[in-house]
Write a structure and sequence with these properties.
This protein has 622 residues and is of the alpha+beta class. It is built from 20 helices and nine strands. Helix 2 crosses helix 5, helix 2 packs antiparallel against helix 17 and helix 9 crosses helix 12. Pfam families: FtsX (PF02687).
């Protein structure tokens, strides 16, 4: 038998231990490769959105690769710990440190090559689906298949180098141990964890303090940072100290602890929570970030839109704007040059402000006849002191509505004494700002309260194709944002900011979150099967004194459920309190997207839990 054959047989004989590592590594390679195929697709060479998508995908590639590095490092270290006895015996039989290095390197490279091959093959199989879903979410044209030589080379070389370097690094864990320590393996008697009561209460106090600040509302200034700091510190001490302290308290509750199988799973869980405290901390924090980010993006994507604006481009010029004609000629030139046939309207408006508590929001005042002429909205006659309120396309996403009465200010910002009762609140007309419509006589009388301005509206078809020129015009009109006398808004730019960019972030974030969840569940799998032999011996001893297979199964199920869903529940609590700030700030539709997001992750976690439970019980029953 050659040395390479010996390494290969070691891998094939430890299928149970290597299977989760292989599948998770292959999944990481698959995601990296499909993202690389998307990143280097010929269709993404040009276009403003495509350039942003490439930057986002590049950032995602680096995140996946760095996470894969940490994941493989942890996994290999877990395997080495589970094989300490084997390495100790080999050293006693005369294997040299150089040969041991070669053995570990060969085994990891075998798994690495197999993972890379499986991931790339899976990437080719699912690439069409990935392209279709990506193009749909990002609202791009259909992406055809192509031969991704560049993506193939980067994926293969990058992950081969990753597996090789980590193989050399992890050998240090073995070489630092003596033969006696290796032979003992995991047989050392563990002392029962003794948490600090002070640190346990400190962790709970930090979480309660952070949650309390959120419930208080009006989270501004340095408060978000303080809440984040309290939550992170509290979560760490909750897992490392408070949770163990609570379990030890349960052990003192004799009527509960000595009932049935409780004595088994509570005792075992104390050790498992202590061993996995850091892992649970990382899982819960990153899961909370994934839940919150995905929920916010889903909510933002579902509530914010640009299609409600009546014009594809809006340009507002104030009375003292010296560049009005220059800007208008530039807009006309860009639209004509890029083949857009457009219609241009000019509407006289008054830029006024009204008193609302301590704030003085701006609003465009327009005559009733102009609203009917340019926006085709019939108001059925307004009285002298009445107005119809049209919020901006951004304002309609908030709970707060227009006040029942508008107390108008003069140009100096002082109360003018003029009041308008809001007869009705209708759908938005434009994106730049809110509009109030008054009858023609009232408009002529009150327009001097504000700055006289001209609103230019451009209407044309295929507005989504004007993103590039919209961004160019916006940069030119606003310049360095100094001494600006105009406002500009394009439907394509608004749609990009509110729909396409969140969609891109959601698309990337979802896949990164899925990679993380697979890795996190795999970490738990590794820890469970590392201690499998020890658990077998313990349950075998308990079976001799009367523990039934059914009781053993129930005890294992309770422990696994807590291990899998305890960090998940804490992450959900963090997410609920994080998104509560959005509800306080006025966002109306938080519950729907959040429920879908958490529900999807929960279903994924549940399926993984059932698979691991089935495999673990099968091994235990043997």
């Amino acid at each position: 038998m050659t040395f390479l054959q010996f390494a290969y047989k070691n891998v094939t004989r430890n299928k149970r231990a290597y299977l989760a590592f292989f599948l998770s590594s292959a999944f990481s390679v698959l995601i990296f490769f499909t993202f690389a195929m998307f990143l280097f697709h010929p269709a993404l060479k040009e276009g403003y959105l495509n350039n942003i998508a490439k930057k986002g995908l590049t950032a995602a590639e680096w995140m996946i690769f760095v996470f894969s590095f940490l994941f493989v490092l942890y996994s290999v270290n877990a395997f080495l710990k589970s094989r300490n006895k084997e390495f100790g015996i080999l050293l006693m039989q005369g294997i040299t440190p150089v040969q041991l290095r070669k053995l570990i390197t060969a085994e990891n490279m075998i798994i690495g090559v197999m993972s890379i091959a499986a991931g790339i093959i899976g990437g080719f199989i699912f690439s069409k689906t990935f392209f279709t879903v990506g193009a749909y979410i990002l609202e791009m044209d259909a992406l055809p298949l192509y031969m991704p030589w560049k993506a193939l080379g980067i994926t293969a070389c990058g992950f081969l180098l990753l597996f090789f370097l980590l193989s050399q690094f992890t050998i240090l864990f073995v070489r630092s141990n003596t033969v006696i320590k290796l032979i003992k393996g995991t047989d050392k008697v563990k002392q029962e964890p003794k948490p600090s009561v002070l640190l346990s209460l400190f962790g709970i106090a930090c979480l309660c303090g952070g949650y309390g600040m959120v419930l208080k509302g009006n989270v501004h200034g340095a408060e978000p940072f303080i809440i984040l700091l309290l939550t992170v510190i509290g979560t760490y001490f909750f897992f490392s100290q408070s949770s163990i302290w609570i379990l030890r308290a349960l052990k003192k509750w004799k009527t509960f602890y000595l009932r049935g199988k409780n004595v088994i799973w509570v005792s075992d869980l104390v050790y498992r929570l202590k061993d996995n405290a850091r892992l649970f901390f990382i899982v819960s924090i990153i899961s909370a970030v994934a839940f919150t980010a995905t929920g916010v993006l889903a909510m933002y994507k579902s509530t914010v839109g640009a299609e409600e604006s009546a014009y594809e481009m809006e340009y507002l010029s104030y009375s003292n704007n010296p560049k009005e004609q220059t800007h208008l000629k530039k807009i006309d030139h860009e639209l004509k040059t890029h083949g857009f046939t457009y219609k241009k309207d000019k509407i006289d408006v008054s830029y006024v402000r009204y008193q609302e508590g301590e704030t003085v929001p701006p609003v465009y005042m327009i005559s009733e006849s102009d609203v009917s002429k340019y926006f085709h909205v019939k108001l059925n006659g307004l009285k002298h002191d009445e107005a119809v309120f049209f919020p901006g396309t951004y304002d309609r996403n908030f709970k707060n509505k227009a006040p029942n009465q508008l107390k108008l200010l003069n140009q100096k910002g002082k109360p003018s004494g003029q009041k308008l009762s809001v007869k009705e609140v209708k759908k938005p007309l434009i994106s730049l700002n809110a509009i109030i419509a008054v009858n023609d006589q009232t408009f002529d009388q009150l327009k001097s309260l504000g700055d006289k301005a001209s609103l230019y509206g451009y209407s044309y078809d295929h507005w989504k194709d004007s993103l590039g020129i919209s961004q160019s015009l916006k940069n030119e009109i606003y310049g360095n944002y100094i001494d600006v006398h105009s406002d500009f808004m394009a439907k394509a730019g608004t749609y990009y900011d509110t729909v396409q960019l969140p969609s891109l972030s959601l698309f990337i974030g979802l896949f990164i979150a899925i990679v993380f969840f697979v890795a996190a569940a795999s970490f738990l799998y590794f820890r469970l099967f590392t201690d499998l032999e020890e658990d077998r011996e313990r349950y075998r001893s308990l079976a001799k004194i009367g523990l039934s297979e059914r009781e053993m199964s129930q005890s294992v199920t309770i422990q696994l459920a807590i291990l899998f869903f305890f960090p998940f529940v804490i992450a959900v609590m963090h997410t609920l309190f994080a998104l509560r700030t959005l509800a306080v700030e006025g966002y109306s539709d938080v519950a729907g997207p959040l429920s879908l997001t958490i529900g999807g992750f929960f279903l994924f976690q549940l399926l993984f839990f059932l698979a691991v439970r089935s495999s673990y019980l099968k091994k235990m029953n043997k």
